[in-house]
Amino acid sequence: MSVTSLSQAVASLKQRLAELALPDAHAPVIQLKESVTSRPLMAWLASQQQFPKIYWHGRDSDEETAAIGSCHQFFFEQEISDEQLASVYQQQLGCLTEAGIRYYGGIAFDRREASWPDFGRVRFVLPRIELRRQQQGYELLLNLRLEQNSLTQEIDRACSALDQLCPAQPLTPPRKTEVLARIDTPSQGRWQQLVEAVTDPVFNADTPKVVLSRHSQLKVAETPNPWTVLATWQGRNRNSFQFGFQFSPERCFISCSPERLYQRNDHQLKTEALAGTTVRGLTPAEDEQLAQQLLDDAKNSVENQFVRTHIMRELAPLSDAVDGQAPLKIFKLNHIQHLHRVIAAKLKSNTSDFQLLQAMHPTPAVGGLPKANAMDFIREHEGYTRGWYAGACGYLSRHVSEFSVAIRSALIEPGTINLFAGAGILAGSDPASEWQELENKLATIMSILVDF
Ligand SMILES: C=C(O[C@H]1C=CC=C(C(=O)O)[C@@H]1O)C(=O)O
Ligand SMILES: [Mg+2]
Known about the structure:
CATH architecture of the largest domain: 4-Layer Sandwich
Largest sheet: 12 strands, antiparallel
Structural class: alpha+beta
Oligomer: single chain
Shape: globular
Radius of gyration: 22 Å
CATH class of the largest domain: Alpha Beta
CATH topology of the largest domain: Anthranilate synthase
Number of domains: 2
Distance between the termini: 49 Å
Helix content: 25-40%
Strand content: 25-35%
Bound molecules: the ligand C=C(O[C@H]1C=CC=C(C(=O)O)[C@@H]1O)C(=O)O, magnesium ion
CATH superfamily of the largest domain: Anthranilate synthase
């Protein structure tokens, strides 16, 4: 396939649309693609006027996608049972006939609780148009979903989406915005009480870990463009997942998360325990010393170990083999460093993404242990709606699926930036140090948004 300009690719896609034969034995999804010349994906996405807008860049991956519009989606605003979700998943699986067809989306942290408007408890989108970069290669993809619409109707919709594409305008770095007010939920006083409740020996005996979190609501004079914020954030933490979901002009969720929930390559699964945190040093020597202290620290090691043990236990019935013997390592970010251990599994041939999500999400890196007790505590005491913060975001496809845990994330709304940060609370947790850990986790995004 020769590489063409975007307008030539659009013309060629429209030509191919016109040539699509009447449905005989069409697959439920038709995906057309054209190679195009290189262009910055985030700037292209920011310039588009069609919603949803989705951006996805996997960690350790030289591939990124910017997607707009929707030709099919699964959206659940109300509680949905596991059985219902399983049947929707089965239906969805039928659409993933070709390797390149992907549903992008997310699952809220807690499907039993109300979530944010637009995002719901579960929302997955088969985009209308995708711009994908794989290393140096760029492709414009067009998706058509035939089950609900007749072929001619779908062709008209696809054509109109192509007609509405806008040329990319260069992104300018976000201006630092003035914070008019900041509201923390829970407040620091309440945080202290909650940490004391979780570390109380009687409670702790049954529930050894709860990941408590905080919502920091910043009232701002000027709402930043979420895509320029994400582009800047991405530059600071290249070794993270970077993604954004915007279903309407009103709100956009962006994340620069270091944490992988899982990556599935057919039956090979990669996951990890990422928990336990300290700051970065000012000099290489100090940085190394802090890393060594983190590796040697008992509370942080247990914090990580809980996640590892839980993941291995959950994966065991779904796998032929689970390997959690990789050494404990340090994962360095811009302002902080974490304990990190890779876990691999060879999945049973009939294990589905639905089962994986159900078993693994939320891990004790964002929920706690045992899962049910920790979730009950969070529901009852945290005092705000986590929505997609600490949820599972990513994509599903036939051979490859990948999900990140949506921490280090922000929900941007007119006049308000909502930031989220959590910390694993267990025996030995000190309320003030854990509060400071929340601040450290926000340091990178704060330094981008405000004078810091
Ligand atoms: C829940 C968060 O971080 C988790 C992931 C890595 C380290 C963590 C910790 O050390 O507490 C948390 O478990 C968050 O950043 O909001
Ligand atoms: Mg911690």
